[in-house]
Amino acid sequence: MNELTRNARIEQRFDELTQCGPQSDMGRLLRRFWHPVAVAATLKPGGTRPIAALGEELTLYRGEGGKVHCIGGRCAHRCTVLHTGEVTGDELRCVYHGWKFNSEGQCTEAPVEAPGFEKNVKIAAYPAREYAGLVFIFMGDNPDRDAIFDLQRKPEYEDPNNLIIAREQNWPCNFFQQIENSLDAAHVGFVHRTGKIGPFGAAVSDALPKLAYSETSAGIRQVATRGPSNIRVSDWTFPNYNHIVTPGRTKESPWVHRGVWNVPATDRLTMKMGVYAIPSQGPEIDAQTRAHFDKYAGYNPADHHDALFYGRQWPEDPSLQLTPAQDYVAIRGQGETVDRRNEYLGASDAGIVLLRRLFWREMQAMREGRQTKRWRKIDEHIDMPIQTEAPVAG
Ligand code: FES
Ligand SMILES: [Fe+2]
């Protein structure tokens, strides 16, 4: 292979990682999984929302009976957006000429046309379900669909003694560099040391970690060892879901389980969907925790881009604002889509290398018509992390 061909091949392999549309290999691979696309509470009965997921415009709506549905973003007739329409029962009527669609995307009424005309009209529709305060959709045709949904499930999200708080934000950069950040424990001691040092920084940043990565039935296990009593284990789930445990709101607060999904809306915009599972501390403290989340968790670093990048103005709250702001500065700072041809990787990037290899392996299997890995939830429960003795700032 000459140098030119080799460079073109490298570029192509990197590009493959960053595309989410239905024609791309990555897009086809991602369509074999469920993805969270909205905080469930943002959809009231009869409510609608336009969203983009995996490069497609979609409409989410909640039927009057409470069930969430996902259909195409635009009307089949003359292509106006459907989220401006009206929900009746479990169907959605277009605002423009009144065509009505059911949750399968089938047109059920085209009022000005001859009866029966509507039977031939159909738009996209995808299964939707709710879990842990989020709406998940499935945009592919994997016969493994239900087993694949189990990848999302964690006992902490189903424990009635936990407060469950779901959050969403959009970051204007490619999803894959955000997924890579989940497998990059070396960043923690630097990124989360800047600005005001919060509980997260104090708890995990005292020593640089020794890192180990291994493939599991669900994805990749990351073990960051910073000392005999400071071992941080996190299980990342294929293709875009990280589960970590972070310190609570105050020194006395229990640690919090957090799920974070990086879901491509488009190749240039990523939905960061999050769930916090917080052990209950009684009604009074729980109410304070909820109030704290209401006050700070709506923060999206992307809305403060210039202040963060040029003003070095860090937000007030250490865990709900500062931590994401720090990650945003590092990750968005790589560019809208990082140019991986210019990287210089080291041993600490072993997780990123493993991650890319898994994606390339799966895409290759798919291209060749071979069976891709049947990913399955890890049943064995581990405490994450083994809690450190290190002082946790409040
Ligand atoms: S554009 Fe929707 S009914 Fe005409
Ligand atoms: Fe981070």
Your description of this structure?
The chain is globular, with a radius of gyration of 22 Å. The chain folds into 2 domains: 35-152, Rieske Iron-sulfur Protein, CATH 2.102.10.10; 153-367, Naphthalene 1,2-dioxygenase Alpha Subunit, Chain A, domain 1. By secondary structure, it is α+β, with helices and mostly antiparallel strands. Strands 12-18-17-16-15-14-13 form a 7-stranded antiparallel β-sheet. Strand 10 and strand 11 form a beta hairpin. It has helices at 3-16, 25-30, 145-149, 155-158, 175-182, 188-191, 199-204, 283-296, 305-309, 318-332, 350-367; strands spanning 34-39, 48-53, 56-62, 68-72, 86-88, 91-93, 100-101, 107-109, 125-126, 128-131, 134-138, 162-171, 210-215, 219-225, 231-237, 241-246, 256-266, 269-279. Residues 384-394 have low confidence and may be disordered. Helix content is 25%, strand content 26%. It is built from 11 helices and 18 strands. It binds FE2/S2 (inorganic) cluster and fe (ii) ion (FE2). The site of fe (ii) ion has 5 residues, from helix 6.
